Amino acid sequence: MKALVRAFILVFIIAFAFMFLSSRLNATQDFAGGGKTLTIYNWGDYIDPQLIKKFEQQTGIQVIYQTFDSNEAMMTKIEQGGTTFDVAVPSDYTISKMKEEHLLIPLDHSQLPNLKYISPRFMNLSFDKGNKYSVPYFWGTVGIVYNADMLGGKKITSWNDLWDKDLKNQILLVDGAREVMGLSLNSLGYSLNDTNEAHLQQAKAKLNQLTPNVKAIVGDEIKMLLANEEAAVGVVWSGDAAEIMSENNKLNYVIPKEGSNLWFDNMVIPKTAKNVKGAHAFINFMLDPKNAAQNAEYVGYSTPNEKALKLLPKDVSTDKRFYPDKATTDKLEVYDNLGKRMLAHYNELFLEFKMHHK
Amino acid sequence: MQTRYKNIYLIPYVLWIVLFVIAPILLIIYYSFFNIEGHLTFDNYIQFFTPVYLKMAASSFWYAFLIMAISLIIAYPTALLLTRTKHKQLWLLLIILPTWINLLLKAYAFLGIFGTYGPANTFLQFIGIGTKQLLFTDFSFLFVSVYIFIPFMILPIFNALEELNPSLIDASRDLGGSPWTTFRRVIFPLTLDGVKSGCQAVFIPALSLFMITRLIAGNRVITLGTAIEEHFLVTQDWGMGATIAVFLIIAMAIIMILTGKRRRG
Questions:
Q1: A221 in contact with B at a CB cutoff of 8 Å?
Q2: Which residues have C-beta within 8 Å of that of residue B91, sequence separation ≥ 6?
Q3: N or C: where does chain A have the smaller number of CB atoms within 10 Å of the terminal CB?
Q4: A214-218 and A262-268 as β-strands: parallel, antiparallel, unpaired?
C-alpha cells in the first residue's frame, strides 16, 4: 500500500514538472524566441490546408489556424483583446470600421514584393486607399441563383424579376440586412449605400410586397436547401453560388442588371499581432501566383491575383458569372461603412420586413 | 458552532449565485441604459414600447403559449399512461433520451425530414394527400418546439402522479365517483403542482427561442430571442438587446410568481 501511494505521488510530481516545463517553453518561444508561431484568423473552410503545410515547410513557422463566421464576431474578438491573431481576413466595410477603431497595423509594402500580381482593378479601393492596411484575398458579388427547370425554363436577369407573381413561395433570402435592403434599393434604382430616409422607407415597402414570394430567410443552410431543390430561387454571395452549382448543375447564377454588391475579403494584420514579420511573410506567400491559383481552385471564389488567374483552367477564368469584366464590376458597389446608427436602422427595417405577414 | 458550519456550506452556493446569476443580471440592466454610441439614456426603453417590439413581444407570448398548451395536452395523458405501464423506468428513459442529443443536430435533422423530398412528404404522398410545404410554416415550428420541450413537461407531471396516494383514487371509486369525476376532482387537483412546474419549464425557455425560428421557421416567426441575438451579434446594439432581455426577465419573474407553489395554510 505504501509503495502504491509513493508511486502515485511520484507520478503526480513528474506530471506537474512536465506541465511547468512545457508552459515555460511555450512562454519563452512566444516572447523571446519570436517568429516561431503564426496565428491566422480566417473564415471557415477558406484556405487550402495544403498551402498552410507548404508555408510551414518553407519558413519553419508553425501556423495556428482559427476560424470565425461573421465579421462582427471577428471584430469583437480582436477588440476585446486577449488574442494573438497575426493575420485576419475581414470584409471591406469591416476594414473601414477597424481602421476607425485603430485595430490594424499598417502594412510594410517592401516586405510584400508579390503585391504587384494583384490586378490594378482591385487595388486602391474605397475602403482602404493605397492599400495601407489590407491586401485583397478573394472577391465576389451578390446575385441570384435559380433553377431554370423548376421555373419552366424562365430566365432571371434582374432584381425586379423576383417580384414576378409566378415565383410565389419560391425565393430563399440570405439572412443579412445589408444584402436584402440592398437588393430592394438597387431594384428601385438607388444606391445600396443609400441613407436617405424616404428611399429606405420606399425600399422597405417594396420588400413587404415581396413577402408572398419569400419562402424563408435563412443562414448558411441556404446552400443545402437550394442544392436539394427546396426552392427555385435564392439570393446568395457568388462564392456560395459556385459551391451550390458544383453540387446541382441545374442551377445558374446571375448578377442582376440593376447593379449589386461587390465585396472583398482582405488580409490584414490586426494590432493583436505578435509576429508581424511572419504575418508579412504569410501574406506575401499567399500572393504568390501559384499559391493563389491553388487556393482559388480549392475554395472556388474569385481571385484578385492577375497572374494566378492565368494559371487557372480556361473554363473558370473566362466564366463571366464569377469573373465579370470591368464594365460590369464598375456598375457594382462596395458596401460603405454606414456607421453604427445607420446599420442599426437598416437592421430595424429588415426586422420589420421579416415580421410582415403574408 | 453549528451556524458557523452552515455558513461554510453556504459559500459555494452564494459564490455561484453572485457570480453567475446576480452579476449578469445587474450587467444586463446596466447595459440597457446605454445607446449605440455609448451614451447614458432611456431611449431603449422608449423604443421597446414602439409597435415593432410590442408586436414581437405579443407574438413571442402567443407562440410560447401554444407550445406550452400543446405540450400539456400531449404530456398529461402520456404521463398518466406511463404510471400504469409495467416497465416505467424504461419508458421514462426513452422519453428523456432525445434530450441528450444536441438541439442543433435535432433541428438540422428536421430540415431533412420536413423537406420537399423528405420522409414526411413521402408519407403524405403515400396516403394520398400529396406534397405539402412543411418547412418554414407555423406547423413545423410548433411541431419541432413541442418535440424539443415535451420531456420537460412529462417529467414533473409523471413525478406528481407517482407521488399520488392510490388509496385516494380507490376511495373516490368506492364512494361512487365515475372515472371522469375521479380524474377531475381527485387526480388533477392533486397533480396541479406538477402541471405548474411543467408549464414553467416549457413556457419560459419557449419565450426566448431563437435558433429554431431561423432554421425551422425560416425567420417567418420572429420572437424576442431572435431580436436579442441580432442586436448582440449583428447590429452590436448591446443596449437594445439588454433592454429586451430585461423585459424577458421581468416577464419570467411574473410567471414564476403567478404559477409558483402556494403554501397551503
A1: yes
A2: B82, B85
A3: N
A4: unpaired
Q: Which fold has domain A26-139+264-323?
A: D-Maltodextrin-Binding Protein; domain 2 (3.40.190)
**Would you call A355 an interface residue with chain B, using a CB distance cutoff of 8 Å?**
yes
Task: Say whether A146 counts as a known binding-site residue.
Answer: no
Tens digits of residue pLDDT in A49-72: 999 999 999 999 999 999 988 888
- A246-249's contacts with Cβ under 8 Å and 24+ in sequence apart are A246/A300, A247/A223, A248/A147
Residue of B nearest to A173 (CA): B218
**Contact between B219 and A175 using a beta-carbon 8 Å cutoff:** yes
DSSP secondary structure letters along A73-123: HHHHHHHH-----SEE--BHHHHHHHHHTT-BPPP-GGG-GGGGGB-GGGS
Residue A292, all three cell numbers: 493563389
Domains of chain B are 49-259 (1.10.3720.10)
Predicted confidence at residue A32, as pLDDT, reads 37
Q: Which three cell numbers stand for residue A65?
A: 489556424
Q: What is the ipTM of this complex?
A: 0.86
Span A35-40, average pLDDT: 88
CATH (residue range A140-262+333-355):
3.40.190.10
Instruction: Give CA angle at A199 (A233, B55), nearest 5°.
Output: 70
Comparing CB atoms, the residue among A76, A230, A347 nearest residue B230 is: A347
Distance CA A254, CA A148 (A): 12
C-alpha cell at B247: 423585459
Q: What is the rounded (10 degree) CA torsion for A62, A64, A65, A69?
A: -160
Q: Which residue among A172, A221, A347 sits closest to B215, beta carbon to beta carbon? A: A221
The per-residue pLDDT for range A311-337, each reduced to its tens digit, is 999 988 889 999 999 999 999 999 999
pLDDT-derived band at A31, boundaries 50, 70, 90: very low
Residue in chain A closest to B235 (alpha carbons) equals A344
Query: Would you call B235 an interface residue with chain A, using a CB distance cutoff of 8 Å?
Result: yes
pLDDT along chain B (265 residues), means of 10: 71 90 94 90 92 92 96 95 90 90 90 91 90 90 95 94 91 91 91 93 91 89 89 86 94 87 52
Name residues 160-219 of chain B within 8 A of A (Cβ).
214-215, 217-219
Nearest to B222 among A177, A230, A354 (CB): A354
Nearest CA in chain A to B223: A355
Is B116–A218 a contact, with Cβ atoms under 8 angstroms apart? no
pLDDT beyond 90 at A12: no
